[in-house]
Amino acid sequence: MDFALRAEQLELQRTVRDFLADKAPESAVRALMDDETGHDPRVWRQMATQLGLQGLTIDEDYGGAGCGLQEQAVVFEAMGAAVFGGPYFATVALAVPALARAGGSAAAEYLPRIAQGELIATVALEASAAERTPDGWALTGEAGYVLDGHLADLVVVPARTAVGVSLFAVVGDAPGLKREPLATVDQTRRLARLTLDATPAQPVGVGGAGTEILDHALDVAAVLLAAEQVGGASGCLTETVEYAKVREQFGRPIGSFQAIKHVWTDLLLEVESARAAAQFGAWAADCAPAELPVAASLAKAHCSQAYSRVATESIQLHGGIGFTWEHRAHLYFKRAKSSELLLGGIAHHRERLVQRLGL
Amino acid sequence: MDFSWTAEQEALRAEAKAVAAAAVARYGWVADSWINGYCPPFARELAQRGWIGISWPTEFGGAGRPAIDRMIIAEELIGAGAPVGSYWVAERQMGPSIYTYGTAEQQLRYLPGILAGEATWCIGMSEPGAGSDLAALRTRAVRDGDGFVVNGQKIWTSFGAVADFVYLICRTNADGPPHAGISELIVPMNSPGIEVRPIKDMAGGAHFCEVFFTDVRVPASNLVGVEGAAFKQTMRQLEHERGGIDRLVSNHALYRRALDRADLGDALVRQEVAEIETRYRLGRLLVYREACGQAPKGFSAATKLFCTEHERRVADFVARTFGSQTLLAGDVARGMCYANSYSIMGGTSNILRNIVAERILGLPREPAAR
To answer: What is the ipTM of this complex?
Structure first.
């Protein structure tokens, strides 16, 4: 048992925090909220070339750093605290684990380009229908709520085939692919609706293995989203508590009132236990894969609840200013809510947890 | 980070599981067995295994094992309901207090009895007028020749009726601020002038007592640490009391029984089980982080708060799961009642929230009462 980050993980944490403080301060986050794509290609390239963040968990054979999920979780926790948006989560937390698990030619083709920062990728979670064509495969169907689907150079799409659900790669400018950006309430987390009409696609992984690959990728994504939620919850808690120390009413700091102390102590426990849940999940993915399914659903449910509670109470503590566009509280709140509902909500993951415990 | 167990730890856990099962077969199981499982023969058995004081330093007769080993054993014993009550308080906090602050003579005199599982200790802490506000305590120890004369009253003293010694927190100086002037004395329970009156608790049990002190003479050599400066020692002792696994698994045996008969086809029940399983696992990580010495300073108050709030949720689930059977006097009803006590003893949840808010979050103190 050891609960401390290793020296190189602390170094990574410092590096990413410094990078985000420089490249993604609140002003930059807000600028991207107003941007049509929600994406800054310049920062994206720097992340790849200066820090190697896109390739952090990608195999060294494919030009990545070959790190584990524990390192990747450190990155997402820092990003969550900064409410950093853009297609990093879709690419690194969803597409990379799916491609890596699938292996084969698609992994060899796309993972090196992701590591280089040349490729934005995502995963559609609704299945299309696949048909053989003289040249290969064509997909027809619809997928709503695809993370960063409007930007992606590559979409991994599950589709029904004769041997079961299989995964396919669809390139962003493929014929017959229609991509509609959706207006999202969390403007740091973009969604798109994709329509495929006999769109050419390349198989990813073994035919019929789609469900198994996606289940695993979604567990990994749940753990990484949990880490991001911990970062957001923790940042929101720290800022709110600091405000409670200086905001005075009735002649004393509001944080000296027990009504405030008790709520925020309970929230601190939610955040601390959420951190334990996310860290255990990342460790399980790296070191005890048999424990990952339980740990992933546990972390996703618990961290979702923790972040939403903290962000909700933060608005309440701030009073009127907390309900303004100008104040930062709504960035946390909207991110908390979009994260809570993404990849299955709290009740969904609690049910999965119980199933996975064999009950 | 590394959440794995070593082979030695796995083996120790397996052994503790077997010892717990054998104890339950022989002595029966009891919920909150660290309070209600008073069983000196089992304590002696554990002592022979070297499991009492396993994490104490070797120079004081312990095995010098990491604190986490003690926690593994405790989790298995208490989680199964094996009766550890007779030595629990002494091993958890009296021993560490004595080997940290006591004299060589005190260490030689009192530690062997604890390690042998022979001695039961109680703590004279709360008073009728000094509960959460411990610094308000009024039990006086006045210097008289080569000793002290103690007068006053303690209350909620667990094991008061069976203890061999009371570890007494008392006032040796009434002048100055409330936190100053507090000392710790070791007092044999058979000293003339001590009267013990058991208090019937809401579950019908009698594990705690009132203890009255009338002109009780205590040799000066029984003073632990520095006279008049014991408040910090007491607070340190409370850290031992708060951060342990006993706070998380008191009703674990009862929960396992409830889970066997819960309606797992009911979606609401499944959601509740998920929440309980989640908080049990996370509480465990917080406790083991304490045991590894990797929790933030003073965090044991927060760990206790998390764990005892979980215990209340478990008891509520157990009570509803057993349905009408809960209405009958018995283990289930007792578990339901006892869950109310975990979040009081060792610091009430509301007081712990104040402590955590001020020490960990750094929120401003309440303005002083006028």
So the answer is: 0.96
